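Good day; I would like, with your permission, to put a structural problem before you. What I wish to show you is a protein chain and, alongside it, a tokenised description of its three-dimensional fold. Thank you for your consideration; the sequence and its tokens are set out here:
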Amino acid sequence: MKLQPADTGPQAFLNALSAAQQTQLFALGAQPRHTPPAGWLPWLCDDMPLGWLSGERASWLAQQLPDCSLLPDALVWHATHAESSLRSEQLQSALMAARDQGLLTGWRNERFSFWHTDCSAADPQRPALFNVERSGFRWLGMLSHAVHVNGFTADGWLWCGRRALNKATDPGMLDNVTAGGLPSGETAQTCLQRELAEEAGLFHLEGHRLQDAGVVRTARLEPQGWHDEAVQVYNLTFGNNFAPVNQDGEVAEFVCLNPQQVLDKMQGGEFTVDAVQTLIQGLRVTGLRYCA
């Protein structure tokens, strides 16, 4: 028998909170996108916006990229005429130089795709403007894509992963049960399946309930630079008393929290910002279609 959204998972989570507590929770996601700091410059590929840079970083990049002009109000890379592969390698070379000079840390040796600043939904079938090292996206303030999963028990508790202490970003913080960036060449669905297997030890969805919860766009200043990300959100209600088990070393532990504990820890700053936004996005669409 098909489980009904009103009876299980995310709806059960909401039902366990009072109206006042729900208001407090949703207030945590009131401003997912911030404004870049004063004095930061937009950078563009001719007239296409790419991201946001500090003045110092814009000056550095202007010296590294061919056909790049630093103007009083913007950094402009004259490269729309070039092939995607050439743009990719030119920008990748600049990022490698930043890494070698100690300016760019957390190198992952994995590429992300950039389509457009308005491209909230990743589209691997559409040619990317370029594909470059993922750690360079925050460093250059460019839009990246990710897949995050809210993992619920049937009675509305939430499985959360604690990020390993050696993670380049947000070490030791509580996160979604699965959270991963979208590498070049992957779809959201293949990324979802891979991350669930690697991070949570879930190798198939049979017996579980998956809900497409849409996309939430977040943007804010981080130590590495300007973080701009479109997160594809899924709600996953585990069946068969499943408990996640990490496979790749990126999760220090999993904890299962009741809704009140989740709210308390989110208000206390123990969760990553994106995990908070992901949960709130998932709860906003509770009761919509299931996709598995």
